[in-house]
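[Automated response] Your request has been received and processed.

Submitted sequence:
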Amino acid sequence: MILRVGLTGGIGSGKSTAAKIFETIGVPVFSADEAAKSVMNEDEELKQKITALFGAAAYTNGALNRKFIADIVFNDPLQLEKLNALVHPATFAMSEQWIAKQKTPYVKCI
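Generated structure:
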């Protein structure tokens, strides 16, 4: 059995610092932020859904057009909610796969 420890907090609250401390003592750390960035660029099904939601400009040369998406979602809470509804399940699935590969008695997810 693996103990999952989640770390949440606002910008500048010390999540990254806490994660580095855990890594220093040998606790594997899964970064949901990094995973979300990765999955939005690598998961073809998710890319299609994001493109359907925001249009072809959502991706440039196959990479997420982060500025374009940010300009939309940070000015429209409903669009942010729709994006999160697509990205969160894919990120959660990625975390489950990562956790299943770990060999320590606990893992940290931020």
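Summary generated for your ticket: The helical segments are 15-24, 32-42, 44-54, 66-73, 77-101. The chain has five helices and five strands.
If you did not submit this request, please reply to this message.
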